[in-house]
Write a structure and sequence with these properties.
single chain, about 0% strand, mainly alpha
């Protein structure tokens, strides 16, 4: 059974986490460009996590759209 409220809450959580990790990616990239840190992992790892949450957000959004028609 499809629960619209739960799926909407998941979608909002995924969007929030996606935004947080996107901000962390830009901070890590800035730190690498200004040479405050020597490791590019400060930008790459948050970007990978952000891509995972972005795909979960899109799947959740697609599920909501399919089940509300």
């Amino acid at each position: 059974m499809f629960n619209l409220k739960r799926e909407t809450m998941k979608k909002n959580i995924f969007l929030g986490l996606c935004i947080v990790f996107c901000i962390l990616t830009f901070i890590g990239a800035f730190l690498c460009i200004t040479e405050k840190v020597d490791n590019a992992g400060y930008a790459i790892i948050p970007m990978l996590i952000e891509l995972v949450f972005n795909s979960l957000y899109r799947n959740s959004k697609k599920t909501i759209e399919e089940n509300t028609k």
